[in-house]
Design a protein that fits this description.
The chain is of the alpha+beta class. It has a domain at 41-125. Helix content is 55%, strand content 10%. It has 5 helices and 4 strands; from the N terminus they run αβββααααβ. It has helices spanning 7-17, 52-66, 70-93, 98-111, 115-120, and strands spanning 21-23, 28-31, 36-39, 124-125. A 4-stranded antiparallel sheet has the order 1-2-3-4, sandwiched between helices.
Length: 127
């Protein structure tokens, strides 16, 4: 069960501090203080392993180094979520558990090579 997020407080904090916020969950919430976007992807197994948040943070730094924008945050969110979905599919095929998923998640992150694959999934919701 996902906790209710106060999106107005998120936006205000991001606006006052001039930063991006990414609240992860079943549906991720992204804001730059002005805009509020949602990213609906990933897999519940991502919350059951250690390291997925750390990898997301490291990848976010890489995405933001290219362009410091909410679009980069959203692209990273979609990338990580897609990796989780693909890893979950491979884990299910192998009849594996959380360790199999963790390894598949790391492998999948290293193997996704096309930005088109991210955006073709249409995971970013802009109200």
């Amino acid at each position: 069960m996902q906790q209710q997020i106060d999106t107005q407080a998120m936006q205000e904090f991001a606006r006052q501090n001039r930063l991006f916020l990414w609240a992860s969950g079943e549906t991720d919430i992204l804001t730059d203080g002005e805009r509020l976007w949602y990213c609906k992807n990933g897999d519940p197994l991502m919350a059951r392993i250690t390291g997925s948040g750390c990898m997301s943070s490291a990848l976010l730094g890489a995405f933001l180094s290219i362009e410091n924008s909410l679009e980069s945050v959203a692209a990273c969110c979609a990338f990580v979520g897609l990796a989780g979905e693909l890893a979950a599919e491979k884990t299910a095929q192998a009849q594996g558990g959380t360790m199999t998923f963790r390894l598949q998640f790391i492998d999948t992150i290293s193997l996704i090579s096309s930005q088109n694959e991210i955006f073709l999934k249409n995971k970013i919701i802009i109200p």
